[in-house]
Amino acid sequence: MAAQKINEAHEHIAKAEKCLKTSLTKWKPDFDSAASEYAKAAVAFKNAKQFEQAKDAYLKEAEYHTENKALFHAAKALEQAGMMMKDMKRMPEAVQYIEKASMMYVENGTPDTAAMALDRAGKLVEPTNVAQAVDLYQKAASVFENEDRLRQAAELLGKASRLLVRLRRLDEAAVSIQKEKNMYKEIENYPTCFKKTIAQVLVHLHRNDFVAADKCVRETYSIPGFSGSEDCVALEQLLQGYDEQDEDQAYRVCNSALFKYMDNDYAKLAISLRVPGGGKKKKSPTAPQGGAGGAAEEDDDYEGGLC
């Protein structure tokens, strides 16, 4: 069966080469027909599991579609070449071809297809190269954003934000989540803004930046429906527990269903959060040891450590 498919592929290549020949009566190569024959050859090679040869045939198809000014079809062929690289576990080359295809889609005036190609490339490399996946998702989001497709842009940024958290690149994650939140606010998807605020607060607290975490919550009060919502109440309790070094309160909030059922990367931030001050509940100002002065000292220490 494989041998038959390989023979079939070579027959299509021979036909393609014939289409490219010129003569006294045929002045121009027939690029369209040549591209079509290389496409058939590529499929035959792929069915025979000859991925390297299939990739070469797809590249030839892309070349002749480009000669024929058929950029969309050329980009599709480049994407297929990338998939052959994926089947051979050669991910860097796979991504290279898909990125090239996405640029061609943009040039052709089909940016949506370009963004979706970058998204697919991101999914391909995510299991083996998280940092590269972040870059691809960000590029895809940027393409959608340029087209004012904010919902799609925000979803792709969401993927990038989660992976940045996984990589512990928390400063970048904080910026990325804020950008997502702004997009969701613009399209009036307010409940998602509240969830993004929870993610922001967790990231900022892991960055030891209580002021930034508190600011995120204060700003979210301007979004309709936030005040009094379960997200708002939980965040106020978390910030209070963190500020007062009350680990019990912070623990209860971080282990509530609202936090535990977030995306896995954020749920991990919640359950691993530790309050400053060694984790013991802060004594009330009326406690015998230290009195009011002791409480003030704790506040001073906390302020210096986090702001």
From TrEMBL:
Protein's GO biological process: intracellular protein transport; vesicle-mediated transport
Name of a matching Pfam family: SNAP
InterPro entries associated with the record: NSF_attach, TPR-like_helical_dom_sf
Keywords linked to the UniProt accession: ER-Golgi transport, Golgi apparatus, Membrane, Protein transport, Transport
Region (Disordered): 277-307
Organism of provenance: Anguilla anguilla
Gene Ontology CC: one annotated term: Golgi apparatus
Record's compositionally biased regions (Acidic residues): 296-307
Keyword Membrane in annotation: yes
Role of this protein: Required for vesicular transport between the endoplasmic reticulum and the Golgi apparatus.
Mode of membrane association: Peripheral membrane protein
Protein name (record): Gamma-soluble NSF attachment protein
Compartments it resides in: Golgi apparatus; Membrane
Protein family: Belongs to the SNAP family.
Main location: Golgi
Domain of life of the native organism: Eukaryota
Any GO molecular function: soluble NSF attachment protein activity
Subunit structure: Interacts with RAB11FIP5. Interacts with VTI1A.
